[in-house]
User: What shape does this take?
Amino acid sequence: DAKTTQPPSMDCAEGRAANLPCNHSTISGNEYVYWYRQIHSQGPQYIIHGLKNNETNEMASLIITEDRKSSTLILPHATLRDTAVYYCIVRVWVGNTGKLIFGQGTTLQVKP
Amino acid sequence: DADVTQTPRNRITKTGKRIMLECSQTKGHDRMYWYRQDPGLGLRLIYYSFDVKDINKGEISDGYSVSRQAQAKFSLSLESAIPNQTALYFCATSEGFGYTFGSGTRLTVV
Assistant: This one.
């Protein structure tokens, strides 16, 4: 079962920041939070991941609460090309390697 | 060339037929995965392989089998296809923290 809960859909105005929330209240201490997005039916595309510190890369920022029970993906200046399904994923450990367990994702619609 | 290549991209098959979906990768990763996606849902894990000799069932392995022919190749088979196996199938590889997905195979069982 997925360990994350996301709103099914969100809208954002072009040029504004898109803030996508995710709850992962049962996350374990060594489990990472990943964000992927899927445009149309293409293969999921990596965005960012983190454990407990906030992370930033050229695509987005990831803000993880101190108790690690929730996180927010921030796209600082959304464009029409950012319209996609965004998946918040907990990477669970199996032995010494991890598996990505997907939830249902948030459909982000960026509007002109 | 794509890092993770899936063939075929689209396939229509009849109920009861055996079908194989193929995945090859050029990333040199040991770990490979097969996922299934149904409309409006996230990806669900079918099988995964940590190396050529290690294959494991995922959440929804019933009705599927896999073969890891080499580090670079991981095939998914439907021994006797049924209509509710109609879905989009993704192969992925990983090493460390990075996961790379293929472009998917759209399978329709009629």
User: Anything to note?
Assistant: The mean pLDDT of chain B is 94.
